[in-house]
Design a protein that fits this description.
This protein has a single domain, classed as Pnp Oxidase, Chain A (Roll), CATH 2.30.110. Helices cover 23% and strands 41% of the residues. It has 4 helices and 7 strands. A 6-stranded antiparallel β-barrel has the order 1-2-3-6-5-4. The longest helix has 13 residues. The chain is globular.
Amino acid sequence: MNNEKEKNEIDERILEFLSAHTNLTLAVSDNDHPYCANCFYAYAKKKNLLIFKSSPETNHIVIALRNDKVAGIIIPDKLDKTRIQGIQFTGKISKAKGDDLATAKNSYYKKYPFAIAFSGELWVIELNFIKFTDNKLGFGKKLEWKKITEE
């Protein structure tokens, strides 16, 4: 195992991709009722959080509040069909509060200052798995990261 994986560090290429793009597709499910939503997001590198703004009454938030385990994808804002790139992720969603709220406000409103004027609350996804496909690294090349959990 290389040193990066031993330290549980995320490959810099994944971090660059997460920081560079704007839209994620969030997948939620509860009682055999799956649902997806597209959200503008910001990435907070220090806390490894995806941050988005949404109303608590939306279908995806109502479902996520019943089942906080979520999945999703992030693809480039401008898709190049000859160079497949994208992130698949899993994580745990929650309403931003405490330290995470300060981080969320700073990250999200820095990227989307106009969003301050819109209603909604900030939500965070604590990532626990990331798979990055990047054909620029070789056809079908994938980089993976998994959160190490203490038991």
